[in-house]
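User: For documentation purposes, I need each entry recorded in a consistent format: the amino acid sequence on its own, followed directly by the corresponding structure tokens. There are two entries in this batch. Please keep commentary to a minimum and don't merge the entries.

Assistant: Recorded as requested. Entry 1:
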Amino acid sequence: MNIKAVSKALEAYTSCDVADALSKLKVPHGGFLAGLTMWSPKRQDGPTKIVGPAYTVRYVRKNYENEPQPSGHYIDSIPSGSVVFISAPARSINACYGGLMSTRAKYSGAVGTIVDGRLRDLQEHRDLDYPVFARDVGTTAPAETMRVAAINEPVRLNSDDQDAVIHPGDILVGDLNGVVCIPQHLAEKVVELIPSQSEADEKVAADIRNGRPVAESMKEHRSGVKKP
């Protein structure tokens, strides 16, 4: 199964479904990337979901002269169907992603952007009906304090609570529940696991609505869920 087919198959499921499958595969935290929530097209509301391979961009503080300086602008080389993942330096005050970037990303066929930092021009993203997840919002452009140092290279999540790395081509899933990262080599296994566990949960929910005890229903339906 290729990445496009994997992404298409995952569109039917939530980030929670994906995290459950990743937990069975022993991925820490079920692949959840803490602190990243939906800001556009609405703030934590609606059925918006993004699924696609990661196209990563890493910013560094502007005075880091030893870091490389890529040629060209990252926004002009986004592959269609991808999820743009922007990594800003930890605790950055300036935003690293704005409305013009979403305008270009949407034109290029990206399915959404995830900003491990601040975004700005919030209304512009919403007017574009373009999905953006981020840590927070801001007002000021990045040029004063940071610059791009790497494109399509592994980036580390800005978190003191978890050690997570996003690699180019990893499958990113984002919805109201948050953002989950599927390591590329596990993507097909996740697609294989989810249907049986989702069906089991539906049966448990039906039993609960009919008054059956949760423990009893889970024992019946979840014990047969497909194992990795």
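Entry 2:
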Amino acid sequence: MSSNKVNIKSNSRTVALVKSNMGILLVMLLIGVVLTFLTPNFLTSSNIISVLRQISNNIFLAIGMTLVIILGGIDLSVGSIVAMSGTLTVGFIVTNHIPIGLAIIIGLLLGTLVGLFNGVIISVFKVPAFIVTLATMNIAKGVAYIYSGGRSTRITSEVYSMLGTGYLFGIIPLPVVYMIALIIIFSIILNKTKFGTYVYAVGGNRESARLSGVPIKKVEMLVFTISGFLAAFAGIILSSRMYSGQPKAGDGYEMDAIAACVLGGISMSGGTGSLSGTVIGAIVIGIISNGLNLIGVSSFWQLLVKGLIILIAIIIDSQKARISDTFAKRKKN
């Protein structure tokens, strides 16, 4: 009897997940069908694994961005934190001869501190997140360039490179393993914890959240700190995959993360959205990029496509909000 109840709950959650993401799932299916006809290599197992590996870094960033946007903010600094953490961590190992484990811890800590700094300035001094993270975007990027002198640093350590190029059981790339683990962890945090409830509450109605006793400042600080940590983690994994720390790495990554969120149904006004939608949005962007690469489309055109995706998703989001507001007013009358 109990097993039947569990199965019913599981099925209902799956149905709810499909319903809430029906639009983006249909788009993903349509794109997949088109690419299958255009290029025979698209549905091969090796290409599917390649797509999952490619989207892993975006999902690391998009998870943090999901929390930030649901909270009602934005984080433009994540791409620069990727560059800073990756460049400094590799530099610590190669140039300063710091042990790999300690260098990774320092790299993660530095990115986390940038996120905490964002949260403190935003919550304590009431400065808009856009302005604060725009400033720290330049600061973090500047640190990467100053430390490296604008040059990439090559690393030959097999232990370090295995972080981003290794496989679990010789089949699943380690970045994909990290990605799955983080998706599970943060899905639980958002949906099953008091902190997750607070994030939605602050993004939905800040004043109501304050009157309800939600510690708004602490929530804001923690959300931006998490975003900084995940960006630092993404930077270290990316540098291990590239066998180098590059100050140019991470350019435009914040846009990919934002695109994944808005494409996945996260409202830019805050308070609504799900991590599952973000993951699907990141997969769609990854499929588009991969398909365009297979077809031989220039990376310049890919930037145009991603920009259009963000614009269309934001327009749809704004129209949905307007329609829901109109419907609510009519219902009251």
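Summary note for entry 2:
The chain has a mean pLDDT of 89.
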